[in-house]
Amino acid sequence: MVALFALAAAALCWPGTCVTRVIPGAGGCATKSRPDCAANARDSGPYGAAAVFDVFAACLRAGLSPAGAASAVATTQQGQVAAFFGRVSDLLSLGVDEGTAWTSAEGNPETDAFIRAAQRSARAGTPLAEAVSELAAELRQTAKDKSAEKAQRAGVLIAGPLGLCFLPSFMCLGIAPVVLGLAYQLAQGELL
Asked: What are the residue boundaries of the Type II secretion system protein GspF domain, all occurrences included (predicted)?
């Protein structure tokens, strides 16, 4: 019984789960635990970035402002792209205009296309959610193409070692007995 309480206390006091952040504009005190900064700084990859962009687009479609959507994404997601949205959310909450807030946090290759779409949307007044959804689909397709390319390259690269391993055994077990048998029969004069 004491061990169970000790395990529960250890799980509750685990580092990285004690920091919470309030989601502004979510209609209440919605909080979500965030991992520590070291875990948040890890690269989420193109699929993680696409998921973050999808969450942002869903927040925009649900009626949140870009500042509220950025804050919600920063609170609920992980990775460099979510950290980008956290910086943008902080800047927007300080009163910085959207164009400046989006460009001040650039530097990640996955967010550069998003920044261009956000600037275009801010200038033209077009809905940002559609552009972000298209960007997420494009990131997924690019990642899928790169994965297929790597798989094809691996198939080509594995042929060399397999050839080096199996060619000598094929020579010894397949061709050499036939050649030796023919040579023996020629030496005996049986084939002529």
From this structure: 54-173
DSSP code, position 172: I
Alpha helices in 62-108 (DSSP H): 66-76, 80-93, 98-104
Instruction: Determine what percent of the chain falls in helix, strand and coil, rounding each to the nearest 5.
Output: 75, 5, 20
What is the full per-residue pLDDT of the chain (192 aa) written as tens digits?
Answer: 555 444 455 555 555 444 444 444 444 434 444 444 444 444 567 888 888 889 999 999 999 888 888 888 888 888 888 888 888 888 888 888 877 777 876 667 778 888 888 888 878 878 888 888 998 999 999 999 999 999 999 888 888 888 888 888 888 888 999 999 998 888 887 766
List CB contacts of 59: < 8 A, sequence separation 6 or more: 68, 69, 72, 73
What residues contact 100, with CB distance under 8 A and at least 6 apart? 91
CA distance 52 to 66: 14
Structural contact between residues 92 and 98, judged by C-beta atoms closer than 8 angstroms: yes
Classify the C-alpha dihedral 98-104-107-108 as positive or negative. negative
Question: What domains can be seen in the chain, in order of their start residue?
Answer: 11-148 (1.20.81)
Distance CA 116, CA 174 (A): 63
